Amino acid sequence: MPVLKVIDRDGAEHDVEARSGLKLMEPLRELDYGIAAICGGMCSCATCHVYIDPEWATRLPPAMSDERELLSELAHLKPGSRLSCQVEMTDSLAGMRVTIAPDE
After folding, report:
1. Burial readout 34-64 (b: 16 or more C-beta within 10 A, e: otherwise)
2. Of residues 20, 27, 17, the one with CA closest to residue 50
3. Strands (E), 1-104
4. Which residues does residue 13 pair with via DSSP β-bridges, in sequence order?
5. How far is CA 66 from CA 18, 47, 49, 78, 98, in A?
6. Cβ neighbours, 10 Å, residue 10
7. How does the average pLDDT of the chain come out, rounded?
């Protein structure tokens, strides 16, 4: 099972297991310091906004139009911004660094 490096909103780093085949959102919303993911992964709320470390961002498939549209409306948008409900976990993402974005 891939292990991610997750940086919470306080800047603390945590090792988090993320099962391959699930969306990145799943393990992050289970954490006390994680994301809200209010829409449950339907790509309609952006409460699962994260920053993917630049080293890893290029390894992910590009964001689809609906994700790009939601991201463009965020005040805390920056390079590496993704909606974790749109990132599928694979074994090749073991070690990926993800930072939980500030609440909007």
Report:
1. bbebeeebebebbbbbbbbeeebeeebeebe
2. 27
3. 3-7, 13-17, 49-52, 81-83, 97-100
4. 7
5. 24, 14, 14, 17, 21
6. 7
7. 95
Q: What ranges do the domains of the chain cover?
A: 3-100
The first and second tokens of residue 69, run together, are 């549209």
pLDDT at residue 80 tops 90: yes
The CATH fold of domain 3-100: Ubiquitin-like (UB roll) (3.10.20)
The residues, ordered by sequence, that sit 6+ positions from 58 with a Cβ below 8 Å of its Cβ are: none
Instruction: Kindly report whether the global pTM for this prediction surpasses the value 0.85.
Output: yes
User: How confident is the model over 4-28, as a mean pLDDT?
Assistant: 96
Tokens 């954490």, residue?
31
Query: What percentage of the chain's residues is helix, strand, coil (to nearest 5)?
Result: 20, 20, 55
